[in-house]
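Re: beginner question about structure tokens

> Can someone show what the tokenized structure looks like for a real chain? I only ever see the sequence side.

Sure, here's an example I had lying around. Input first:
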Amino acid sequence: MPCQRDVIYVYDGGLEGMLCCIFEAFEKKERPAAIRPEQELQPSLFEARWVETDTARAKRVAQGLEQKVSPRAAWVVQTLFLTTHPEKELLALDFTRLAFQRGRQVTAMMGHPVVSDAVLTARRAFGEAHQYKGLLRFSDVGGVLAAEIEPKNNVLPMIAPHFCARFRNESFLIYDRVHHAALIWQDRQAQMLRVDALTLPPPTADELQARRLWRQFYKTIAIEARINPRCQMSNMPKRYWNLLTEMQDGEEERGALAAAEAAGAQRLRPRPEYGTIEAENAAGAGETVSPRG
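And the corresponding structure tokens:
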């Protein structure tokens, strides 16, 4: 049994750093009082111990989980890192320790408080990422597609492969307002950057017209007799609506278009909406997908 220590592990805030904290706890046969990224460290009576990030050590933990336990167990730990669970690092450590003790069956032990907390937390993050694959809306900003998200969890690394594959010939940017991170895809290369603040340029008259046309299309295809608000909110929760083009009233766009026309702007040619990603989800036809067992 590991000894409980009045020490706080401090790491650099990356996934490899968290895995190195797990390695450190195994190596010293101890359980720290807490594990914190350096930017979140608060004054404490406990000793703060810096854990250096070592790629080789992190790899041993990740490969050990995948090969000696199961790929699903490795997925749980890696996904936990992307969540907003207040003690995600300590939970990942406790889950990893239990995983090496119980083996492949660990992810099915939902009666165990550590397993249920870890697995359900990871599932919720996965579910949020899945919803963003259908509810993300891009805008045309100077020939580049740009979108903003406000997720509870750090879903950007989870949705990046989907959009990079789907728009491999485009250039696009996805900005996470909550976690201050941006995914940039250009020349078929992806970059994940830390961005403290980002303000996108105001939409052009052409973009505003495209949004108006998309809202009109969205309303036109609806079958009034089959409108089901409860089903819609189940597949498209209200917290996503402020960034969904079809759920805006269009007042800002109408004002901007009127100003453009008053200034003698050329009438715009209709074009397809750039950012319609899996539009069936917006109409309440999406289906929640759980991670593979």
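Each token stands for a local structural state, so reading them left to right follows the chain. Confidence is low (pLDDT under 50) at residues 264-290.
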